[in-house]
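Morning, I've got a small favour to ask if you have a moment. You're getting the sequence in one-letter code plus the fold written as tokens. Thanks so much in advance, here it is:

===
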Amino acid sequence: MGEVPRLRNDKNGYGPNGKNFIVAVDIPADVFAAYDELSSSFGDYIRT
């Protein structure tokens, strides 16, 4: 779960639109949906 925020290509992620540590990664929408659902219940387990 902690990798999803880092893989996002936004100002907080590690992609070119953020920290520019990695190339942009295409993540399917269903993965983001699952992450959002799980993070509401298990947010304390996400390390960023």
The chain has two helices and no strands.
